[in-house]
Automatic annotation (TrEMBL):
GO terms for biological process: proteolysis. GO terms for molecular function: aspartic-type endopeptidase activity. The keyword Hydrolase applies. This is Asparticase nepenthesin-1. Keywords: Aspartyl protease, Disulfide bond, Glycoprotein, Hydrolase, Protease, Signal. Residues 10-311 form the Peptidase A1 domain. Gene3D superfamilies: Acid Proteases (2.40.70.10). Residues 1-17 form the signal peptide. InterPro entries: PEPTIDASE_A1, Peptidase_aspartic_dom_sf, Plant_Aspart_Prot_A1, TAXi_C, TAXi_N. Belongs to the peptidase A1 family.
Length: 316
């Protein structure tokens, strides 16, 4: 089952996972006791018709009514689909259209459609400046690419809803840089490691890993005047030739071309390396390969076979 992606003006927000979907409100919202429990929903009234839950997503918090209805995606129908009907959103990580949960959590789209899609899906995210915006989300094992490179998909008990992979090194140009192994090691105790995430815009690397990559990147660009812009610390006011950056995973290397590495200011006069170090919070141990770095690649999540596939695909 394939869905075309619609333009949402999304890249200002961390919301590439959001797609426009037809949600048919056939019945009044019902609450599901098990979902209510998972979400710590409160104030479910006596009739069970209203349950409100709060949730954080990125920098946003949402208050939503727990709802259940038939969910129609192209030709497929999912009955008793549990979702949150947004009531109030603060922050800008959640776009007004809402979010489609593609993670491994118990209430994600994939978890609720096991029979239909067997926790298998792929997407190709077009360049965020694309006029055509011809990305796609393909749900289910049918029609998935055959020629694709795989790396094992891992599950980290500390962050069970995320898709972990084993990053073993990073190459800048032709040089494998010297990253302290602990910065990228998969760690089920701390929840550290590397995830592939469509809901984050720019790749964040654990600080020592980022600094190593950045320094080698700067060395190869050979333009002395490095400036910063917003959250980016490696920006240039003159045109540059950037080295490629290659993520080395178990059994799979992915080399990113310039389009996946550089972001240009809207005025066009500043070019930045579109990566940063991990935030100084609970996520400081997490490397996140984000959607800017996934553009024009097909990313295949094959959960039953515990593998993640990546193939270059121009969805423009
Ligand atoms: C629900 O509450 C439990 C216990 O306080 C907590 O561990 C869990 O993270 C909460 N779940 C959500 C989705 O907030
Ligand atoms: C959600 O947050 C609001 C505002 O902070 C609070 O008043 C309300 O009690 C919370 N509801 C739940 C179910 O936690
Ligand atoms: C959500 O629940 C509140 C409180 O019961 C209600 O006032 C509101 O209309 C509901 N919103 C939606 C979108 O169903
Ligand atoms: C939906 O079904 C129709 C009729 O069988 C078919 O032509 C169409 O391609 C299907 N759409 C999708 C997205 O599978
Ligand atoms: C957009 O799509 C049309 C038709 O498929 C194609 O001719 C055109 O070259 C595309 N434009 C870009 C910028 O990719
Ligand atoms: C370096 O970049 C800054 C910031 O854009 C600019 O003001 C300055 O003129 C540049 N210096 C040189 C030597 O190019
Ligand atoms: C990935 O690149 C590294 C370093 O260049 C190389 O040693 C390794 O064999 C490559 N692995 C694969 C699966 O191509």
């Amino acid at each position: 089952m394939e869905l075309a992606m619609m333009p949402l003006g999304y890249l200002a927000q961390a919301a590439l996972a959001a797609l426009l979907l037809s949600l048919t409100m056939l019945n009044p919202p019902l609450s599901s006791p098990s979902a209510a429990k998972l979400l710590n929903a409160s104030s479910c009234d006596g009739s069970g018709n209203t349950c409100i839950f709060n949730m954080t997503y990125g920098g946003s918090t949402i208050a939503a009514n727990l709802s259940q209805d038939t969910f129609t995606l192209a030709n497929d129908s999912v009955s008793s689909y549990t979702f949150g009907c947004l009531q109030k959103t603060t922050g800008n990580s959640v776009p007004p259209q809402g979010l489609l949960g593609l993670g491994r959590g118990p209430l994600s789209l994939l978890s609720q459609t096991q029979d239909l899609y067997q926790s298998t899906f792929s997407y190709c995210l077009p360049n965020f400046r694309s006029a055509n915006f011809s990305g796609s989300l393909r749900l289910g094992p049918v029609g998935q690419p055959v020629r694709i490179k795989y790396t094992p998909l891992l599950k980290n008990p500390r962050r069970p809803s995320l898709y972990f992979v084993n990053l073993i090194g990073i190459r800048v140009g032709n040089k494998v840089v010297d990253i302290p192994p602990s910065a990228i090691a998969f760690n089920p105790t701390t929840g550290g490691g590397t995830i592939i995430d469509s809901g984050t815009v720019f790749t964040r690397l654990v600080e020592p890993a980022y600094v190593t990559v950045r320094d080698e990147f700067r060395r190869r660009v050979k333009v002395a005047n490095v400036t910063s812009l917003g959250g980016f610390d490696t920006c240039y006011t003159v045109p540059i030739v950037a080295p490629t950056i290659t993520f080395l995973f178990t059994n799979m290397n992915v080399t990113l071309p310039q389009d996946n590495l550089l972001i240009h200011s809207t005025a066009g006069s500043i070019t930045c390396l579109a990566m940063a170090s991990a935030p100084d919070n609970v996520n400081s141990v997490l490397n996140v390969i984000a959607n800017m770095q996934q553009q024009n690649h097909r990313i295949l999540f094959d959960v039953p076979n515990s593998r993640l596939g990546v193939a270059r695909e121009l969805c423009t």
